[in-house]
Q: What sequence folds into this?
């Protein structure tokens, strides 16, 4: 149910005021009313309201003058004017004076209700954008992480809790959710903070070079090894080693990593002696490692060694208003870099950012804001500055309609489509999909096997 709107009605006709108060009250709104513009303005100064609804033709301070006064002194309160059909020119003048909308007499109460709710949504977005400008943390925040949503507050609490222990941590989440920032936050709050933080993306290093990258090599170990080279384990000694996309690590390197973690020793490629090392390991993946274990692509013993503590990073679509908080931070950053005076978002642009699903998460949002800042010619980003995919996004829905009721899908088919949709949104991660669906992994696997058998039978 939509939230109630606190409305101030102004009309010099007492009967009209009483009618609107009764009708809008039945729709769930909180209504106050006054029969003069001057009295209404004084009430607005004394008591905040969400929306002002005023008749245009009133004795004393008329609706147009009241609108101008409210816009000048209470710009966060949208004004809706009510006018007779023959007074459209005056209504247009009110819009030019800053009124949000107008309604012509005679009107259905539902039409006024819709205008009220639209104005209230606009006001809510404007207040939120203003609040973010005023309260935005300086760059860095929680080690560069920004968020006020419940999901992020839980993550911040978990970071504080796990930072003080030396256990291995597996960071799980979709691409672009900020896994390296979380790893740096954990390191920065640990007893190892003064020692090195060393990061490597396992998917970005060619398989033939990854072992050397991790453990180093001695001169002559292979063609091109013209000198000894220190590996990441040695560089991270006493500190933290962060392995991003650990699910892409080759099996041969997995075995050597497991031994290094168990024995706290490693041997550089081509060396005859082992080296001791004191490293805390943080690993991250967007893949379903349990699936990889089941398929023989990831060692089960290494999985258990890495998965001592697991932290799940929320996707951006699950973080609500954090989208605007992050957008304001990225906007300020890229406006400064571009040397442009871009100070914020218009409410319609903010609404489009909130509506989009952000499959690329925070990384995609930053790219979108950087592009918008570079291309805009305005001091506030408008909808047209946003990428087309954001502007035209419509939330996907499960389509069940059919002209013939006999052609509607069965309950089994609806369930299959829904499960497949959740899997797609989770990028194939069955562990995450099972959590979203409220199932355990075994139940999800059984359902997928049943859907597959049904598909084979239909074929």
A:
């Amino acid at each position: 149910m939509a939230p109630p709107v606190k409305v101030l009605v102004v009309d010099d006709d007492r009967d009209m005021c009483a009618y609107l108060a009764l009708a809008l009250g039945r729709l769930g709104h909180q209504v106050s009313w006054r029969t003069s513009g001057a009295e209404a303005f004084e009430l607005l100064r004394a008591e905040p309201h969400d929306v002002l609804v005023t008749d245009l033709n009133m004795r004393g301070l008329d609706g147009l003058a009241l609108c101008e006064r409210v816009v000048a002194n209470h710009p966060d309160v949208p004004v809706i004017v009510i006018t007779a059909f023959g007074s459209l020119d005056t209504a247009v003048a009110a819009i030019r004076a800053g009124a949000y909308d107008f309604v012509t007499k005679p009107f259905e109460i539902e039409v006024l209700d819709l205008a009220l709710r639209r104005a209230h949504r606009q006001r809510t977005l404007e207040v939120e954008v203003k609040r973010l400008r005023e309260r935005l943390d300086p760059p860095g925040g929680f080690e560069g992480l920004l968020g006020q949503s419940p999901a992020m507050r839980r993550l911040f609490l978990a970071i504080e809790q796990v930072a003080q222990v030396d256990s291995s941590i597996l960071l799980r989440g979709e691409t672009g959710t900020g896994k390296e920032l979380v790893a740096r936050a954990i390191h920065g709050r640990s007893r190892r903070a003064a020692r090195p933080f060393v990061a490597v993306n396992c998917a970005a290093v060619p398989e033939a070079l990854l072992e050397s990258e991790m453990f180093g090599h001695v001169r002559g170990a292979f063609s091109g090894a013209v000198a000894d080279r220190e590996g990441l384990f040695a560089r991270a000694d006493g500190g933290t080693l962060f392995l991003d996309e650990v699910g892409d690590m080759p099996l041969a390197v997995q075995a050597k990593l497991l031994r290094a973690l168990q024995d706290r020793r490693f041997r550089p490629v081509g060396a005859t002696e082992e080296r001791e090392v004191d490293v805390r390991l943080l690993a991250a993946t967007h893949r379903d490692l349990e699936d990889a274990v089941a398929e023989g692509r990831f060692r089960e013993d290494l999985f258990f060694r890495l998965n001592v503590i697991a932290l799940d990073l929320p996707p951006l679509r699950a973080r609500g208003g954090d989208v605007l908080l992050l957008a304001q931070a990225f906007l300020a950053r890229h406006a400064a870099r571009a040397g442009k005076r871009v100070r914020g978002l218009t409410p319609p642009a903010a609404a489009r950012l909130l509506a989009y699903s952000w499959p690329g998460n925070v990384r995609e949002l930053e790219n979108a804001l950087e592009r918008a800042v570079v291309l805009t010619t305005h001091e506030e980003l408008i909808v047209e500055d946003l990428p087309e995919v954001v502007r035209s996004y419509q939330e996907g829905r499960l389509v069940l309609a059919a002209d013939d009721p006999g052609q509607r899908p069965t309950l089994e088919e609806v369930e299959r489509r829904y499960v497949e949709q959740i899997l797609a949104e989770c990028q194939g991660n069955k562990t995450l999909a099972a959590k979203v669906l409220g199932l355990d992994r075994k139940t999800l696997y059984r359902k997928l096997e049943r859907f597959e058998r049904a598909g084979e039978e239909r074929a």
